[in-house]
Amino acid sequence: MEIIALVQTKMSSDGLCNIQAIDKDKNQYNLKINFSKSENILLDHIYIFDCDIKAGQRTNYIIKDYKDVYEFKSEKLDEILRSFIKASPYSYEEGKKIVDEYINKIDNKVLFDITSYLVNKHHDKFFIYPAAAKMHHAYVGGLVHHCLSMLKMADAFIENYEYLDKDYLYSGIILHDIGKSIELDGPLNTSYSKEGMLIGHLVIGAMEINDACNKLGYKDKEEALILEHMLISHHGVPQFGAAKKPMTPEALALWYIDTIDSKFRVLGDELENTNEGSFTENIGVIDKMKIYKPIKD
């Protein structure tokens, strides 16, 4: 019998490891495995257990073998994860389709090639990872959800401000958080990698562009320099982690669009948990402000 379940507790006795786990439908399972084989089974992780059933006063499931959910390919992994935990409204395939559509709107060959190369390089993570461990878009697929929301806003910016270069803006938005595929360690129980702690996703992203340009033969192209600048400046000011302040129109637009989407996504999450006619709790990313939720007729 195959059981896909989230591990809740582990206890050892008589040479066995007793595991309490829950599936996507909230069914509880009492799983048993030889203690020596249980070391790699971690709390709050999802596994696919191959079990024999042992009937008795309490049904036990004897684990014959198990696989970490991360062994599955991207589309299946996305499907499993979103059945257990909060996820983007866009599935893996939906997110990939829309991002590909925007990449194909990039007319500049250098920007098109760099963007395509890096999205393909990191696609297993880019379309499944959260955008943060705890702040905005902190859920399965949050990274691409953030990206798609920003691209929609970019279309309005481009329509209103004709001097903005759509190729730079699309490329910069799609790649601005590509470093999070290295900065973060996964969509489940997300924490920061050593590279994330020591370098951070802005610089990691610029390093990834530099690496892509070396491989693609674009190292001395101005497009590469401008794109690197957009990534290291997209937090706007040094106190928020930017290595430089934005110094091109598209870099400035990227900063504002990123800021708007991150703050308003957090606000939306807070409003979901707030009754009409009440104020939210203090919202850290909005200067610790409380926001009133009006009563609707």
Write up what this structure looks like.
By secondary structure, the chain is an alpha+beta fold. It is about 45% helix and about 15% strand. The chain has eleven helices and seven strands. It has helices at about 75-80, 90-105, 110-120, 125, 140-160, 165-175, 180-185, 195-200, 200-215, 220-235, 250-270; strands at about 1-15, 15-20, 30-35, 45-55, 60-70, 280, 290-295. The protein has a five-stranded mixed β-barrel. Helix 5 packs across helix 11. The model has no long low-confidence stretch (mean pLDDT about 90).
Following the backbone from N to C, one meets helices and strands in this order, namely EEEEEHHHHHHHHHHHEE
Residues in β-strands, percent:
15-25%
| Main beta-sheet strand count, sense and barrel state | 5 strands, mixed, barrel
Mean residue pLDDT: 92
Total strands: 7
In short:
Helix 6 (166-175) crosses helix 10 (222-233). The strands form two sheets. The protein has a five-stranded mixed beta barrel with strand order 1-2-3-5-4. Strands 6-7 form a two-stranded antiparallel ribbon. The chain has helices at 74-82, 92-103, 109-121, 123-126, 142-160, 166-175, 180-183, 194-198, 201-216, 222-233, 249-272, and strands at 2-13, 16-22, 28-34, 46-54, 60-68, 278-279, 292-293.
